[in-house]
Design a protein that fits this description.
Helix content of chain A: 25-40%
Largest sheet of chain B: 4 strands, mixed
Order of helices and strands of chain B: HHEHEHEHEHHHHHHHHH
Protein name (chain A): ABC transporter ATP-binding protein
CATH superfamily of chain A: P-loop containing nucleotide triphosphate hydrolases
Strand content of chain B: 5-15%
Structural class of chain B: alpha/beta
Number of strands of chain B: 4
CATH topology of chain A: Rossmann fold
Strand order of the largest sheet of chain A: 6-7-8-3-9-10
Structural class of chain A: alpha/beta
Domain ABC transporter (chain A): 5-234
Organism (chain A): Larkinella humicola
Number of domains of chain A: 1
Keywords (chain A): ATP-binding, Nucleotide-binding
Number of domains of chain B: 2
GO molecular function (chain A): ATP binding; ATP hydrolysis activity
Oligomer: heterodimer
Number of strands of chain A: 10
CATH architecture of chain A: 3-Layer(aba) Sandwich
Amino acid sequence: MENAVHTHQLTKKFGSFIATDAITFDVAQGEIFGFLGANGAGKTTAMRMLCGLLKPSSGEATVAGFDVYRQSEKIKQNIGYMSQRFSLYEDLTVRENIRFYGGIYGLRRADIPVKTDQILRKLGIETVADSLVASLPLGWKQKLAFSVALIHEPKIVFLDEPTGGVDPITRRQFWDLIYEAAHGGTTVFVTTHYMDEAEYCNRVSIMVDGKMKALDTPAGLKTAYNVDSMDAVFQILARGTSTK
Amino acid sequence: MNRIWYMVEKEIRQLRRNPVLLRIMILAPIMQLILLSYAANYEVKNLNIAVVDGDHTTYSQRLVGKFRHLDNFKLTGYLPSDKQARQTLLAGDADLVLVIPPHFERDLEKAGSTAVQLLVNAIDGSKAGIANGYATAIIRDFSTDILAETRAVSPGVVPQLAIENQYWYNPKLEYKTFMVPGVLFELLLLVGGLVSALNIVREKEIGTMEQLNVTPIRKHEFILGKSIPFVIVGLGLFTVGLLLGRFLFQIRIEGSVALMYVFALLFLILCVGLGLLISTLAENQQQALFVSFFLLVLFILLSGLFASTENMPVWAQWLNWLNPLKYIIEVGRNVMLKGSTFADVSRQFFVLGGMAVGLLLLASWRYRKTV
């Protein structure tokens, strides 16, 4: 089976600053791939290159089999994206947001109401379907944004710190949604700096100063560094210190 | 095509959700149309005139009397001396002072000629020029009267050439008639250019622009989806403006209304193109606002809306070659007041069309789906 994401020596420079330094990795289809790193480690830059939002300086990358240099518009048809910044229109209702993004992603007119009901039911937010998104609690907004990112049933979904600022229960519910999507065959590429979330991933990579320092399953990493939590692995790699 | 419709639908929904902006977009331009057309007025009325009468005779009284009967002038009073006259001007109590010398009547009767002095406060040069023109005309009128009377007594008449002016297209020299067509198009620049630029930059600020950039939306779909709502609002506004012009200002539209709409549409496309271009250059709403405001003021002041472009220095006239507002105001005035046909304004049509295409091409070249 073809890899969902493939990169080789992918690099992005801003002037003399190297944001992403020659990273090489593959993500298998249906995998939940965790992308970890401290703030400014280059996670968002790498993700933006893969989404076709940023042209790489050098190196290779394909997403869903399409080249990031030449076929970025093809990539965009096959991915979903949820940025750190909130990406729904606050001055539109839940239903209108779903309708708008459904339309932009080229869903058939008749399919949009069906899809809308599906999302509303799944998230249990039928009662606020016609409320403005601005009036929803943050956790609901994020779950809705995730569902909207999946509206066109993309092969891969990129999530940039999707659970920032929400309570642990909502985070847990959010991860249930991620699992469900992965079960359906969608590849999930997620950045986070919550180490408990790292445990939920199939494989985890850890970025430090633009370089990819480690890449393995959570269990594999813990064994390799001889610690009992992902937090400890992260401390050793990112801070160069051990909590032990 | 489908995506364009979804964009338009979304924009219109958002506009309706923002009643304050909608109200400002409709009411502010209408207020501007009314206020500018009534207030920005170069007719000079209510000039305060003071008189230093050194003669105190029938003739001097008659001359002063002529000023009294015109509503352009308001006689503030008599002053005893030149010195007081200067003080009055200095204090701003009079715009001009008429100084009638002693022996005014005697000189006029005996020598057939004399001189009066006009002191004009010329801080506002154009107003002073007009005031001076009015006053000179009145004095000339007076001297013609006197000449006629003296000639009646002693013949040997010199034939007089009377010049009678006929003002075409704006027979009453109404300033409003001159302003309305210009302001009407200036408003479209406001809505089409400024508001559209701010709208797109706002999407950049809140992050939905990035979200749109990872969707398969095509450049032209985005640009058209953003343009169409503003063109619709602009045309609505134009209609309100035309109706106000017709019924409030009583300006008959001499030319074809359809031609006016063709130009309004063309100009709106141009304005939205400009707004789009600004939005691709600006990172945030402050930058967009500043750039738009700078261009707007420049366009308006150079456009001939207030001051005739022919009297501007050569470099300003060159700059005006790039000023879309200049062309469209020419069109507005010619079509509305003179009844010009398409053939008369075809040059402006092609210049504006070229600018619109150029701006849209530049904007779509600058608009990147990458950050």
